[in-house]
Write a structure and sequence with these properties.
Elements lengths: L1 E7 L1 E2 L11 E2 L3 H16 L6 E8 L7 H14 L5 E6 L6 H9 L4 E7 L3 H7 L5 H13 L5 E7 L6 H13 L4 E6 L7 H6 L6 H17 L3 E4 L2 E3 L6 H7 L4 E4 L4 E4 L2 E4 L4 H6 L4 E4 L2 H14 L4 E2 H8 L3 H4 L3 H5 L3 E3 L3 E4 L1 H5 L1 H8 L1
Parallel strand pairs: 1-4, 1-11, 2-3, 4-5, 5-6, 6-7, 7-8
Antiparallel strand pairs: 8-10, 9-10, 12-13, 13-14, 15-17, 16-17
Helix pairs in contact: 1-2, 2-3, 6-8
This protein binds iron/sulfur cluster.
The site of iron/sulfur cluster has 11 residues, from loops.
């Protein structure tokens, strides 16, 4: 079964670190045209192919309730056999009517873009919510029986102390959240944060301490670390995102969205007008060696690593015949046994070095 990703690029404001395909939501006509195109594409899909649906952004819950209902109704009419159906939300925009729509149309997982609970951090990242907004959002979702909640956190932003991070993680515990995605800040070019702070260096030692603290603290409070940046309570792993890490097929609809089917990767235009006209797509055909490398790089993101049997079943060859990774084992970045190949604890901190060896 495949995953279906639907991209809603509209945002009420632009966060300082953001490099995602997005658009300030000011033009109602454009939003209507965008939704009409999405709806046409959704209606053209084969219902039986998908068991996970993910509405991401941008900010999907920046849509007004009429537009949101139109989109959710289209999806509901089309799909009813999914296991997981997620929507990404900004906490300051969640309201009761929205949550009732989520419930009515079968959404069973909500991912909140929190990033931090710390005012200083929120200001730097240009996020417009407060700690209170997050608490109220979680309460509202739980009151309406949506308990499968993810919170995204960012750590390592300038001026963040380990005490700030500890507070964020304690809030996750206090709110009894089922899933956390923790990413280190990446200074992407073309972002406001890069323009303002490009001369500053991220403190890599502090970031490593933060990662170590995060891994240990979340384990202590019952989270299973199942992917480099993702942690869940038992049974709450993201089924949709696991498809990416397992290199399964998925379809992406919307501006800048990517579809990956067999060895073909198609990415829609990052420009809304080109997306609406169905032009400016990039199509990439992956050869066997590309497919093998991607399978390894994505697979190693999982804490349990790659099952050698899965590799063999997919490519009809053995991973240790195809790649020489002895150096990474000697450096104690990778470890293997008869069944699997995975990152060591040390390797989690230096994963990019490992991945580069497979590129
Ligand atoms: S981080 Fe999310 S909410 Fe912020 S601008 Fe980017 S897409 Fe929009």
């Amino acid at each position: 079964m495949k995953g279906l990703y639907i991209h809603i690029p509209f945002c009420k404001h632009i966060c300082s670190y953001c490099d995602f395909p997005k658009k300030i939501a000011y033009n109602e006509e454009q939003i209507t045209n965008y939704l009409n195109k999405l709806i046409k594409e959704i209606n053209g899909l084969n219902t039986n192919l998908f068991d996970t649906i993910y509405i991401g952004g941008g900010t999907p819950n920046s849509l007004n309730n009429n537009n949101l209902e139109l989109l959710l109704k289209t999806i509901k009419n089309k799909f009813n056999k999914y296991k997981e159906y997620t929507i990404e939300c900004n906490p300051e925009l969640i309201n009761k009517e929205q949550v009732l729509l989520f419930k009515k149309y079968g959404i069973n997982r909500v991912s909140l873009g929190v990033e931090t609970f710390n005012d200083k951090g929120l200001k730097l990242l240009n996020r417009h919510h407060s700690e209170k907004d997050v608490i109220n959002s979680v309460k509202l979702l739980k009151e309406n029986d949506i308990n499968n909640i993810n919170i995204d956190l960012i750590y390592g932003y300038f001026n963040e102390t380990i005490e700030d991070l500890k507070y964020d993680l304690e809030m996750i515990h206090k709110l009894n959240i089922m899933h956390v995605s923790c990413y280190t800040l990446i200074l992407e070019k073309n972002t406001l944060l890069y323009k303002l702070h490009q001369e500053k260096e991220l403190n890599e030692d502090l970031i490593a301490d933060m990662m170590d603290y995060t891994y240990k603290y979340l384990a202590k409070i019952g989270f299973n670390h199942y992917e480099i940046s993702n942690f869940s309570k038992v049974g709450y792993e993201s089924l949709h995102n696991l498809k990416y890490w397992n290199k399964e097929d998925y379809i992406g609809l919307g501006m800048g969205a990517t579809s990956c089917i067999n060895n073909k990767r198609i990415t829609n235009s990052y420009f809304i007008n080109n997306y609406l006209k169905d032009i400016d797509k990039s199509v990439e055909i992956l050869d066997l060696i590309d497919l093998k490398k991607e399978f390894i790089i994505m697979g190693l993101r999982k804490i349990k690593g790659i099952l050698k049997e899965d590799y063999y079943n997919k490519f009809n060859s053995k991973i240790n015949d195809d790649f020489n990774y002895k150096k990474l084992i000697d450096l104690k970045l990778l470890e293997e046994d008869d069944k699997s190949l995975k990152l060591t604890y040390r390797g989690l901190f230096l994963a990019n070095i490992v991945f580069e060896e497979f590129i």
